[in-house]
Amino acid sequence: MSSYWLMKSEPEEREPGVKFSVDDFEAVKTTSWEGVRNPEACRMMKEKMRVGDRVLFYHSNCKIPGVAALAEVCREGYPDYNAWDPTHRYYDKNSTQEKPKWYMVDVKLMKRADHFVPLWVLKGIAAGEVDLGYLTEEQVKEIGEMTLLRRGRLSVQAVSERAYDTVVQMSERGGWTEQKGGKGLNTGLKRVRESGARSEGVEKRRKRTRGA
């Protein structure tokens, strides 16, 4: 039985070698999810993620954060060998080949979202400020209970099947105005404020040249 996840990546070049956007993901198709240094997030990858699990690929720590694509786990947890390399940005002297401390999985791109699903829309739905019309009360409740809206800083998060399906539906149907650098909703829907531009913690970072 599949599980469902949300995994964050930074789409903007804030630091050398950390950018990995949906465009980069489309270019390489499959990538290792190295560099996660939060114990809880790492434990999920090591112990809970299985091949075939579905993933919401999330742009984070950027002007307009949100779900940019759908992905799938294609290799289960294995040691993050970058932690053993003293020259690597993710080096950790406390992690060794004999006793690895950090783990990663491989993830493959399934599909870029037809409609980018911004954090401000998800927050607006949960707050009752946005009504897309096609979502049921149960779906709205599931959105409001997402870890993203409760413990947003965690870079790898479990997602309920219903919440995952709801976000996928939103990515297919849209219903808000998607403006670069702006925000707004189509006629008949309330406008909500963007509040996700601040840093959301340590996201998954890797060089865009990494492939399968």
Automatic annotation (TrEMBL):
UniProt domain EVE: residue ranges: 3-170
Keyword line: Nucleus
Main location: nucleus
Subcellular location: Nucleus
CDD domains (UniProt xref): EVE (cd21133)
Protein name, UniProt field: EVE domain-containing protein
Organism: Hydnum rufescens UP504
Cellular component, GO annotation: nucleus
Residue segments, region Disordered: 175-212
Record's compositionally biased regions (Basic and acidic residues): 191-203
Keyword Nucleus (UniProt): yes
